[in-house]
Structure formats: C-alpha cells, structure tokens
Amino acid sequence: MMFLVSAIAILVTMGMAITRGFKGPTVYDRALAVNVFGTSTVLLIAVIGFLTGRPDFLDLALVYALLSFVGTIAILKYVSYGDLAATRDPDPEEDWSW
Amino acid sequence: MIDILSWVFLLGGAFFLVSAGIGLLRLPDVFTRLHGAGMADTMGVALTTIGLMLQAGLSLVTLKLLLIWLFIWFTSPVAGHSVARSALVGGERPVLHPRDPQAAAAAAASARQGDAVEGRAP
Fold first, then answer.
1. Do residues B33 and B26 touch, judged by C-beta distance below 8 A?
2. What's the average model confidence in pLDDT over A62-84?
3. Could you report the predicted ipTM of this complex, rounded to two decimals?
4. Which of A5, A21, B87, B103 is at 20 to 30 A from B58, Cα to Cα?
5. Which is more confident, B61 or B118?
6. What ranges do the domains of chain A cover?
7. Residue A61 CB coordination number (10 Å)
8. Residue B118 scores a pLDDT above 50
9. CB of B30 within 8 A of CB of B92?
C-alpha cells in the first residue's frame, strides 16, 4: 500500500515535469524538466521493484541515474557550445552578469 | 513500528516530489524553477530512499539504495549549476531580480497573463 501511494505521487510528479518539458519556453526549461523526470524515473523504478517484490530492479535504477546525469550534461553542453568537445567559454567577450 | 516510520518517510518524500512538480509548473522562469527541481533531487529522493531502506532491512538492497541516494545527492547540484550557467550564458536573465525595475513589472504582468516571458530563443 505504501509503495502504491509513493508510486502514484512519483507518477504525478513525472506528469507535471513532462508538462513543463512540453510547454517550457526555453530549451533550459526543457533540460531542467527532463532532469527532474529522470530523477523521478529512478525513484519509480526502485519503488516498483519493492511493489512487485523484486528489488533486483535497483540495479536498473542505479544505471538509469548515471545515464540521466550524463544526458543532462551533454544536452546543456551541446546547447551552450554547439560542440560536445569544446573546452573554452562560449563567448568570453559578452557581459553576462545582470 | 518500522512500517509507521516507513509510511512517514514515504509520505514526506511524496510531498516533496509533488511540490517539486508544482514548483516546476508554477514558478516564473528557469532560475526559480531550479529551486523547485532541487526539492525533488534532495528531499524527495532522500526521504523516499530512506523509507524503502526501512522496508528492505539490512541487506544488499539497502546498500544499492544508499548508492542511488549518494549518486543523486552528488550529481543534482552539478546539474543545477550547469542549467543555471548555460541559461545565463545563453541570454536568459532572472525575471525577479532585474537591472531595470520597470521592465521587471512589465515582464511580471505578461507572465501573469500568458505562460511566461516571451520566447527568447537561445
């Protein structure tokens, strides 16, 4: 029962995150929403493992946590630099303080 | 007893997760939405995994849950910083803390009418 409640709450969070992912006006909103969606997916996999009495699913959750983080960083780096192998600042001349 | 504690932790985690989702939907710009996302990544994950650990007892499952928790605990600030920095570099500015207060009032009014600040494509 407690796992069911937790899984439903996680699913609600995933729904709201994916809504922001579709709506979000900028690409950064979308990247943030996908990040939250990935974290919720990790938790959902873990909780479903307990719900069905098969905690082996935790291995999948661990791997998905690693992949989700690398994916977020890769998306943001590609958006900022336009190149996954870039090493310098995007535009050192520009004043991006506010 | 363990079941009651587990209920408390899982319900606390559910509360933080749902408030993170509401924050993602309702807050006005990327920088404030980062705050909402942080709720899910810290307290949501922590309380939910602690609740699951109490159910698992002392076993390899608890160690795996601890590893998941530690990994998300360490990567969440990095991801948040990365989003904020690339948003700043890409031309986004905080709506709630602008240089020009009049522009801020206009932006807040348009955010109240429509969804958010009009699209400044990166």
1. no
2. 88
3. 0.83
4. A5
5. B61
6. 2-81
7. 24
8. no
9. yes
